[in-house]
C-alpha cells in the first residue's frame, strides 16, 4: 500500500506526521539511488504579532494563502507540508546541486513578495528559510530535520532570510559542536570569556599605536577552547552577535584605563560578516561608544573580505555610516579570499591588513614579497594605511619597512596578553636596540 498523506485541516497540505513519513521514504530512495535531496523549513516572521493585531481568523486565512503560494513552487515530485503553527516544510528530491536549491529558496521568497489581500486589509509578510541537504549535511531523517531547523534558527538570529546548514556529516564532530554550543550559551554569564590584546606598532619607530582585541574562552574542566573552534560554532549557532557586542563593550571599557599618551590609542574589534550587512550595526556601536567612548581611544572595526561579497551595496552603506561616526574600518586578511579589486576604489575602509601567510614568507619568497609590495602600493594609492600581522623576525620587519608598511603586529614584539598584562606592557614598552630602524 502506498503512502497516503494525512492533511492539515486548515491548509489542505500534509500535516507534520505525514510529512515525516514522506521524509523517511524519499530520503531512503535518495540514499539507495545515490541522489541528492533538499529539505527546506520555512517560518512566517512575526506571525504572533499578526494574530495579535488582526485576530486569529485573519491569521488562519493568511496561512491558507501562504500555503497556496507555496504550492506554486513545487514540481510534481516535491512535497510541501504544514508542520507547525506558522511553520512549513518542503522536500525537494532529485535536485542537481546546492545552487539549484538556493534558486528554489529565492523563488519562494519572490512568491511571497506581493502583498496578501485578506478582507479589507493588505499585508506583506516575510519568510525565513533553513535548508539542509542530503548527503552533504546528513543522510538520516532525524539528523537532516534537526540541521534544517537549526539553520532556520540561526538565520533568524543573524537576519538571513535563507540559511544553509553547516557541513556536519561527521557525527562525532556534530556532537562536539553541540556540546560547545550548549556550553558557550552561558559562558558570558559564568564569566568564562576574556579579551587578550596584541599590540600594533608603527613600523618605523615602533611606537605603540593600538591593539587588536582577541576573544578567549576558558571552559572549566577543559581549559582554553581555541577561537578557531568556538567562533565558527558561535556563528552557526546564532550567538556571534551577542559575543561581538560583549567584546566591543569590554574592549572599549578596558581601553579607557590604559596609560594614554598625548596621542590616541587604537582598539580593533573583529566584527563577523553576518553583522556587517545588518542595518542596526551603526546604532549598536554608537550605543557602545556612548557608554565607553574616550577621547584618547580610537575604535577600529575589523572585517573580512567575505563581509563585502554577500551584499556589497548594503555593506558599503553600513560601513560608510560607521566611518561618518569616526570609527575606522580595517579590511582583515586581505589577499586570502576573493580579493575585491573590482570595487576596490569604493571600499569604505581606512586600512588593509596583510595576512600572516604572506608576511611569514617575506624574507625568502619572492612571490610573497611581490604580493605584499603590490598590496601596500595599492592601499596607499587609495589613501589607506597598511598593517602587517604575523611579524615574527627581524628580516620580515626590515623588508616591511623597506616596502613602506605603516603598522606591524606579531610575536616579534608581543604575544596576545590579558588586560592586566597588556596594561603593564604598555607602561614598560621600549623598543630594543636591535629592532630600531
TrEMBL record:
The record's InterPro entries line, in alphabetical order, gives:
Biofilm_reg_signaling, EAL_dom, EAL_sf, GGDEF_dom, Nucleotide_cyclase, Rev_trsase/Diguanyl_cyclase
Question: Domain of life, per the record?
Answer: Bacteria
Q: Where are the transmembrane segments?
A: none
Concerning PROSITE patterns, the annotation shows: EAL (PS50883), GGDEF (PS50887)
What sequence ranges are listed for the domain GGDEF?
Answer: 35-168
Question: Where is each EAL domain found?
Answer: 177-430
Q: Which PANTHER family match?
A: BIOFILM ARCHITECTURE MAINTENANCE PROTEIN MBAA (PTHR44757:SF2), DIGUANYLATE CYCLASE DGCP (PTHR44757)
What is the protein's name according to its record?
Answer: Bifunctional diguanylate cyclase/phosphodiesterase
Which organism does this sequence originate in? Pseudomarimonas salicorniae
Q: What is the lineage of its organism?
A: Bacteria, Pseudomonadati, Pseudomonadota, Gammaproteobacteria, Lysobacterales
Amino acid at each position: 500500500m502506498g503512502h497516503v498523506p494525512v492533511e492539515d485541516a486548515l491548509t489542505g497540505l500534509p500535516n507534520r506526521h505525514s510529512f515525516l513519513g514522506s521524509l523517511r521514504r524519499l530520503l531512503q530512495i535518495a540514499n539507495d539511488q545515490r541522489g541528492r535531496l533538499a529539505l527546506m523549513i520555512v517560518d512566517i516572521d512575526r506571525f504572533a504579532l499578526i494574530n495579535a493585531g488582526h485576530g486569529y481568523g485573519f491569521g488562519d486565512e493568511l496561512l491558507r494563502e501562504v500555503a497556496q503560494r507555496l504550492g506554486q513552487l513545487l514540481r510534481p515530485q516535491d512535497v510541501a507540508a504544514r508542520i507547525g503553527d506558522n511553520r512549513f516544510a518542503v522536500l525537494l528530491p532529485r535536485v542537481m546541486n546546492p545552487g539549484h536549491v538556493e534558486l528554489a529558496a529565492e523563488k519562494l521568497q519572490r512568491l511571497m513578495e506581493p502583498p496578501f489581500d485578506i478582507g479589507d486589509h493588505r499585508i506583506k509578510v516575510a519568510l525565513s528559510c533553513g535548508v539542509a541537504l542530503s548527503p552533504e549535511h546528513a543522510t538520516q531523517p532525524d539528523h537532516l530535520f534537526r540541521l534544517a531547523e537549526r539553520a532556520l534558527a540561526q538565520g533568524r538570529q543573524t537576519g538571513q532570510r535563507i540559511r544553509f546548514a553547516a557541513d556536519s556529516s561527521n557525527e562525532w564532530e556534530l556532537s562536539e559542536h553541540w556540546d560547545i554550543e550548549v556550553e558557550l550559551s552561558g559562558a558570558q554569564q559564568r564569566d568564562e570569556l576574556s579579551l587578550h590584546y596584541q599590540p600594533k606598532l608603527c613600523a618605523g619607530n615602533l611606537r605603540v599605536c593600538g591593539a587588536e582585541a582577541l576573544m578567549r574562552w576558558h571552559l572549566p574542566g577543559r581549559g582554553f577552547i581555541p577561537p578557531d573552534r568556538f567562533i565558527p560554532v558561535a556563528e552557526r549557532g546564532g550567538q556571534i552577535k551577542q559575543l561581538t557586542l560583549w567584546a566591543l563593550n569590554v574592549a572599549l571599557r578596558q581601553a579607557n584605563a590604559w596609560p594614554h599618551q598625548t596621542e590616541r590609542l587604537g582598539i580593533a574589534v573583529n566584527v563577523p560578516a553576518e553583522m556587517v550587512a545588518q542595518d542596526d550595526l551603526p546604532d549598536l556601536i554608537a550605543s557602545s561608544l556612548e557608554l565607553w567612548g574616550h577621547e584618547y581611544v580610537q575604535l577600529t572595526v575589523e572585517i573580512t573580505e567575505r563581509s563585502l561579497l554577500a551584499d556589497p551595496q548594503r555593506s558599503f552603506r553600513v560601513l560608510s555610516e560607521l566611518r561618518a561616526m569616526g570609527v575606522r574600518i580595517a579590511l582583515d586578511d586581505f589577499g586570502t579570499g576573493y580579493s575585491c579589486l573590482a570595487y576596490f576604489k569604493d571600499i569604505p575602509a581606512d586600512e588593509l591588513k596583510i595576512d600572516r601567510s604572506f608576511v611569514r614568507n617575506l624574507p625568502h619568497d619572492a612571490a610573497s614579497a611581490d604580493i605584499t609590495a603590490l598590496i601596500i602600493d595599492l592601499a596607499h594609492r587609495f589613501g589607506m594605511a597598511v598593517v602587517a600581522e604575523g611579524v615574527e623576525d627581524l628580516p620580515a620587519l626590515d623588508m616591511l619597512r623597506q616596502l613602506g608598511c605603516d603598522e606591524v603586529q606579531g610575536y616579534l614584539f608581543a604575544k596576545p596578553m590579558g588586560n592586566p598584562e597588556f596594561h603593564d606592557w604598555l607602561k614598560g614598552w621600549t623598543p630594543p636596540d636591535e629592532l630600531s630602524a
